[in-house]
Amino acid sequence: PIEVKKIVCIGAGYVGGPTCAVVALKCPHIQVTIVDVNQSRIDAWNDPDFNLPIYEPGLVDVVKGCRGRNLFFSTEVDKGIAEADLIFVSVNTPTKKSGLGAGFAADLNYIELATRRIAEVSTSSKIVVEKSTVPCRTAESMRTILEANAKPGCRFDILSNPEFLAEGTAIEDLFAPDRVLIGSLQSQEGLDACAALANVYANWIPKERILTVGLWSSELSKLAANAMLAQRISSVNMLSAICEATGANVDEVAYAVGKDSRVGPKFLKASVGFGGSCFQKYSLNLVYLARSLNLEEVARYWYAVVEANDYQKNRFAKKVVDTLFNTITGKKIAVLGFAFKADTGDTRESPAIDLINHFLSERARVTVYDPEVQESQIMLDLTDYGAKPAEPIQKAVTVCPSALEACKGADAIVVVTEWKEFVNLDWQSIHDTMNKPAFIFDGRNILKRQELKNIGFKVVSIGTGDRL
Ligand code: NAD
Ligand code: UDX
């Protein structure tokens, strides 16, 4: 079997960083180098005080355990590639903004650039692992590019090894994944490469959790897993609308449904809508794939998952306005949480962005507090990275250092992210400072509804027909 001694990971982001740091921790005999073209990101990974570029519980301890031992962060991409015998490609694959498939298809430019770089600087054979999430048959394109540009004597074996970690629990997920999926060509060389990568994971993952399949199945499984999780949330959110109209309680419904072992209890929490860099993107990738295969009904099915999510976000924003006597002009709305979920500082596709945009279009004043998101990031998101003029947004939005500060004098509080600290705030003191009637919109159904009502709050939750 091929023995992997040196690994390089191209892309030091949310996936490449934590994934390969865990590989280094669990495999002290393998040298792992994570490279990126982004100097400030690499500097942060090398920060002497461990102020790492991403916030993820447990990550600092992993990096402390092996940085400088067998884990290195560097901008020397070419050197990293040249030395490695296995290369993880973990670059970003955003949705295309223009051209064919704009708004749906994945932009594979970064993958192609990284692939061409690998072909150009490699002087020995490599196993190239597609870690980024990519449309089906991308491995085929990578192989064509590599083979067309390979130096004499260099062979490239391509594997697909999609990553299933969720942000906020990345380290837990990487330590004990439900499964690791490796796709390869079913040729002898492909199977050998697959075995080499499986042996790396076998250093800490039980063999029965390492699944090996064909390349295309592996690529499609990643899109499918994400789209099916997104579909579960959209399903429960669409039930939440029925609950609100009938007086049923969506948490009770989800509990009852989830008790069926065929359905299972996880990922059935109704919410203001899902966010994050993955669910919407991969559902749309699947829609695009189906369309390009002329499977219009299939495309429509998966598109409905995304439409339902947009509907849920709009429905919630509209409920805030309706409840505040049909106008929020000049009113102060305190938004608690800006990250797309708890335990991360990531704001990509966060429902908070859409909600605040809605409130601003109704000319409300907005205060925001999030324990992990910086003011500069909030402004980038609200101005759509500079596409909208900053001044009116800066005038209307204030980012606050605490929840208490954000809620002072507010007409309504809107909980968007399920940060634990929001559950046990000093709600009595907050109520005292607010305009009356004091409204709370719990976009995550995490607050203690009865206690808040006892204090005097008017509480609106997701998926309950209860009176205020
Ligand atoms: P990211 O934007 O955080 O990181 C990607 C990094 O790659 C960036 O720092 C960028 O500078 C670097 N990069 C791009 N081209 C490069 C090149 N040619 N050479 C060196 N560095 C280069 O993205 P991410 O969230 O880590 O996602 C990476 C991939 O993993 C994507 O395909 C994503 O869809 C997938 N994924 C993400 C998650 C998640 O939770 N974020 C989970 C599973 C899979
Ligand atoms: C997701 C997948 O879970 C992971 O396997 C994949 O590798 C990347 O995409 P991530 O987006 O990081 O991970 O977080 P996830 O926990 O899946 O949450 C996504 C969104 O759904 C968040 O906005 C979350 O708040 C929301 N959500 C999740 C719900 O609204 N209800 C739920 O029951 C679960």
Automatic annotation (TrEMBL):
<dbReference type="Pfam" id="PF00984">
    <property type="entry name" value="UDPG_MGDP_dh"/>
</dbReference>
<dbReference type="GO" id="GO:0051287">
    <property type="term" value="F:NAD binding"/>
</dbReference>
<dbReference type="InterPro" id="IPR001732">
    <property type="entry name" value="UDP-Glc/GDP-Man_DH_N"/>
</dbReference>
<dbReference type="GO" id="GO:0005634">
    <property type="term" value="C:nucleus"/>
</dbReference>
<comment type="similarity">
    <text>Belongs to the UDP-glucose/GDP-mannose dehydrogenase family.</text>
</comment>
<feature type="binding site">
    <location>
        <position position="41"/>
    </location>
    <ligand>
        <name>NAD(+)</name>
    </ligand>
</feature>
<feature type="active site" description="Nucleophile">
    <location>
        <position position="278"/>
    </location>
</feature>
<feature type="binding site">
    <location>
        <begin position="132"/>
        <end position="133"/>
    </location>
    <ligand>
        <name>NAD(+)</name>
    </ligand>
</feature>
<dbReference type="InterPro" id="IPR036220">
    <property type="entry name" value="UDP-Glc/GDP-Man_DH_C_sf"/>
</dbReference>
<keyword id="KW-0560">Oxidoreductase</keyword>
<dbReference type="Pfam" id="PF03720">
    <property type="entry name" value="UDPG_MGDP_dh_C"/>
</dbReference>
<feature type="binding site">
    <location>
        <begin position="269"/>
        <end position="275"/>
    </location>
    <ligand>
        <name>substrate</name>
    </ligand>
</feature>
<dbReference type="InterPro" id="IPR014026">
    <property type="entry name" value="UDP-Glc/GDP-Man_DH_dimer"/>
</dbReference>
<feature type="binding site">
    <location>
        <position position="444"/>
    </location>
    <ligand>
        <name>substrate</name>
    </ligand>
</feature>
<dbReference type="Pfam" id="PF03721">
    <property type="entry name" value="UDPG_MGDP_dh_N"/>
</dbReference>
<feature type="binding site">
    <location>
        <position position="262"/>
    </location>
    <ligand>
        <name>substrate</name>
    </ligand>
</feature>
<keyword id="KW-0520">NAD</keyword>
<dbReference type="GO" id="GO:0003979">
    <property type="term" value="F:UDP-glucose 6-dehydrogenase activity"/>
</dbReference>
<dbReference type="InterPro" id="IPR017476">
    <property type="entry name" value="UDP-Glc/GDP-Man"/>
</dbReference>
<dbReference type="InterPro" id="IPR028356">
    <property type="entry name" value="UDPglc_DH_euk"/>
</dbReference>
<feature type="binding site">
    <location>
        <position position="36"/>
    </location>
    <ligand>
        <name>NAD(+)</name>
    </ligand>
</feature>
<feature type="binding site">
    <location>
        <begin position="163"/>
        <end position="167"/>
    </location>
    <ligand>
        <name>substrate</name>
    </ligand>
</feature>
<feature type="binding site">
    <location>
        <position position="167"/>
    </location>
    <ligand>
        <name>NAD(+)</name>
    </ligand>
</feature>
<feature type="binding site">
    <location>
        <begin position="340"/>
        <end position="341"/>
    </location>
    <ligand>
        <name>substrate</name>
    </ligand>
</feature>
<feature type="binding site">
    <location>
        <begin position="91"/>
        <end position="95"/>
    </location>
    <ligand>
        <name>NAD(+)</name>
    </ligand>
</feature>
<dbReference type="GO" id="GO:0006065">
    <property type="term" value="P:UDP-glucuronate biosynthetic process"/>
</dbReference>
<comment type="pathway">
    <text>Nucleotide-sugar biosynthesis; UDP-alpha-D-glucuronate biosynthesis; UDP-alpha-D-glucuronate from UDP-alpha-D-glucose: step 1/1.</text>
</comment>
<feature type="domain" description="UDP-glucose/GDP-mannose dehydrogenase C-terminal">
    <location>
        <begin position="334"/>
        <end position="449"/>
    </location>
</feature>
<protein>
    <recommendedName>
        <fullName>UDP-glucose 6-dehydrogenase</fullName>
        <ecNumber>1.1.1.22</ecNumber>
    </recommendedName>
</protein>
<dbReference type="InterPro" id="IPR036291">
    <property type="entry name" value="NAD(P)-bd_dom_sf"/>
</dbReference>
<feature type="binding site">
    <location>
        <begin position="278"/>
        <end position="281"/>
    </location>
    <ligand>
        <name>NAD(+)</name>
    </ligand>
</feature>
<feature type="binding site">
    <location>
        <begin position="11"/>
        <end position="16"/>
    </location>
    <ligand>
        <name>NAD(+)</name>
    </ligand>
</feature>
<dbReference type="InterPro" id="IPR014027">
    <property type="entry name" value="UDP-Glc/GDP-Man_DH_C"/>
</dbReference>
<feature type="binding site">
    <location>
        <position position="348"/>
    </location>
    <ligand>
        <name>NAD(+)</name>
    </ligand>
</feature>
<dbReference type="InterPro" id="IPR008927">
    <property type="entry name" value="6-PGluconate_DH-like_C_sf"/>
</dbReference>
<feature type="binding site">
    <location>
        <begin position="222"/>
        <end position="226"/>
    </location>
    <ligand>
        <name>substrate</name>
    </ligand>
</feature>
<dbReference type="GO" id="GO:0006024">
    <property type="term" value="P:glycosaminoglycan biosynthetic process"/>
</dbReference>
